[in-house]
Amino acid sequence: MARIAHPSSHLSVRTYGASHGSHDHAHFQILVGLEGALELEVAGRGLRIGAGEGYVVPPGERHDFEARQGARCLVLDSHDSGWAMAGTAPTPATLALASYLAEACSRGLPRAQAMGPALLLEAWLPTPITSRRARREIDWAALADWASGRWTLDRVEVADLAARVHLSPAQFAARCREEFGLSTQQWLRGLQLDQARRLRAQGLPVAEAARRSGYRSPSALTAALRRRT
């Protein structure tokens, strides 16, 4: 399982076939279907991108692609935090632009490729970037307390955390990356491990500390503690 990183925005047309395994990366990945159907799994959720459909994969979200009959997509790898404000589905204005940008990539048109990432974001957003409202502040300490109190009740998902602070999962992932330099899953794992270490310091057995901090088993907690050490 590899971690992929790109130094800047990069626009391309890619052909997909058999799965090469799941991975995650530190940037947004925007996909618009051109031909065929791409099966996509993001953080355990199954999706399908057909021609004229699209999706925004947030930073840090582990995902896998497969197209059994083959598929072509316009793909943008971008570090622009503006994508946190975009919905996962493209607006109608995006699709005609995506078709043009795919042709520009095939023909190697440098100006279209250079300006394409910004134009694609502008078309994808439902409102102009300049009209966005001030962003919502996140009380990270309160959010951590809320998550830490739910390990024994249910599995805490990124969507739950995002909803708790009135953000979309993509927005929440971007804020987590911006403020801590971590993916949402890394932030959650840090909370779990910190809570488990406090419980162990209080004298609780490994099994009870694992249960209260959301680990699948005592051995999973022991391995996590060993890695941190």
TrEMBL record:
<dbReference type="InterPro" id="IPR050204">
    <property type="entry name" value="AraC_XylS_family_regulators"/>
</dbReference>
<dbReference type="Pfam" id="PF07883">
    <property type="entry name" value="Cupin_2"/>
</dbReference>
<keyword id="KW-0804">Transcription</keyword>
<dbReference type="InterPro" id="IPR011051">
    <property type="entry name" value="RmlC_Cupin_sf"/>
</dbReference>
<keyword id="KW-0805">Transcription regulation</keyword>
<feature type="domain" description="HTH araC/xylS-type">
    <location>
        <begin position="141"/>
        <end position="229"/>
    </location>
</feature>
<keyword id="KW-0238">DNA-binding</keyword>
<protein>
    <submittedName>
        <fullName>Cupin 2 barrel domain-containing protein</fullName>
    </submittedName>
</protein>
<dbReference type="InterPro" id="IPR014710">
    <property type="entry name" value="RmlC-like_jellyroll"/>
</dbReference>
<dbReference type="GO" id="GO:0043565">
    <property type="term" value="F:sequence-specific DNA binding"/>
</dbReference>
<dbReference type="InterPro" id="IPR013096">
    <property type="entry name" value="Cupin_2"/>
</dbReference>
<dbReference type="Pfam" id="PF12833">
    <property type="entry name" value="HTH_18"/>
</dbReference>
<dbReference type="GO" id="GO:0003700">
    <property type="term" value="F:DNA-binding transcription factor activity"/>
</dbReference>
<dbReference type="InterPro" id="IPR018060">
    <property type="entry name" value="HTH_AraC"/>
</dbReference>
